[in-house]
Amino acid sequence: MKQPIFTGTWGRGTCHIQGIAVDEEKGYIYYSFTTKLIKSTLDGEIVGSVDGLMGHLGCIAYNRQDGRVYGSLEYKNDVIGKNILSSLGSSSQLEDAFYIVMFDVDKIDRMDMDAEKDGIMTSVYLREVVEDYNGTGLDRQGNVVPHRYGCSGIDGTTFGPMFGAPADSKQYLFVCYGVYSDINRDDNDHQVILCYDTEDWAKYESPLSQEAMHKNGPEKPTEKLFVFTGNTNWGVQNLEYDPYQRAYLMAVYYGKKEKYPNYHLYAADAQVAPVVQKLQGLNEEGKVVQLLQAGSRDPKTGICGWRFPHGATGLAACGDGRYYISENHMTRSGQCGIIYQYVWDDKEAFVLAD
Fold first, then answer.
1. Are 176 and 156 in contact (CB under 8 A)?
2. What is the pLDDT of residues 11-56, one digit of tens each?
3. Strand partners, 23
4. What is the number of domains present in the chain?
5. Which phi and psi (to 5°) does residue 133 adopt?
6. Closest to 147 (Cα-Cα) out of 243, 213, 77
7. Is residue 281 included in any domain, yes or no?
8. Which value, in Å, is the radius of gyration of the alpha carbons in the chain?
9. pLDDT for the residue numbered 76
């Protein structure tokens, strides 16, 4: 790998780098720049791009089983959605909808390929996310507030084994909620992770028309899991299964509630099966996943994590203790990213590779 890799400048306004996915076997790295996907070699040579998205393409993940890149794509009329449309110079009004999109990355061979028209991208509708986004919760005073669990949509995505299953067992797609930062409610203090078995998703996969968005997707996820971290700003930005640590790494924009440690990075222990228990701040039970007992442990809450400042805009685990991690930067010509290679460190989480 060339150290570091420069992504090139692609984003405008709020359209910064959102995630990365790496295929070391073929020698490619992929960047999500909010409204487009970029394909590059690991030496930094740009191969092509997919454009035309009017929603928020977030964290992306390479699926070694089918050779495609999966990503979270959301359309909503909140501040994020409006800023994206404004940066594109669009006056469109899009309905609230949440999808997993699949890119046939072997077909990306030139710049400015069209996500809708060039046969590169299919999509699956996530009904569970829509229901929670449109649902309600209660604030600390018992008032009804919008968005169940504070759900702002989806972002983090990765493939890995079920919690508590052997490392070499069946791979599932895990998708994390975005979560609104609201210090006046206690029902938004969990990271919510949906788990999907994608083996039968061929019956749902459809081209996406942003003028008439489809609703083809599973009725329910395979599992719905909760990780107690305290509220974070926009939830899990990048989710990544790390075979080396046997953990699901969760890079976030740190939270604002002073009673929590507000780390930048958390890890859910993949070796421990979920336990059904009452959810803190909620009058309901759910399947709770345990945090990895590593890094810094907050003595008041018992929450563990790290204050590593990067990863929220891109984190890819190689499986052998090496990681590709993105740093977002702004230049005079727009948004860009610089990708560095790191190795695992128990205390710091990551340190730069030699």
1. yes
2. 777 789 999 999 999 999 999 999 999 999 999 999 999 999 989 9
3. 28
4. 1
5. -60, -40
6. 77
7. yes
8. 19
9. 87
Cα–Cα distances in angstroms (integers) from residue 353 to residues 2, 31, 81, 323, 346, in the given order: 12, 21, 37, 9, 14
Count of residues in the chain: 354
* 148: DSSP letter: G
Residue 327 falls inside a structural domain: no
Q: Which distant-in-sequence residues (6+ apart) come within 8 Å of 93 by Cβ? A: 77
Q: Kindly report whether the peptide bond that precedes residue 299 is cis, defined as omega within 30 degrees of 0.
A: no
For residue 23, how far is the Cα from the chain centroid? 18
Whether 59 is in a domain gets the answer yes
Contact of 253 with 274, CB cutoff 8 Å: no
Q: Which residues are CB-contacts of 79 (< 8 A; sequence separation ≥ 6)?
A: none
Q: Which domain holds residue 93?
A: 38-313
* 123 belongs to a structural domain: yes
Q: How far apart are CA 268 and CA 228, in angstroms?
A: 10
Any idea which residue has 């060039």 for tokens?
Answer: 118
pLDDT of residue 354: 86
> Could you report the per-residue pLDDT of 267-282, keeping only the tens digit for each?
999 999 999 999 999 9
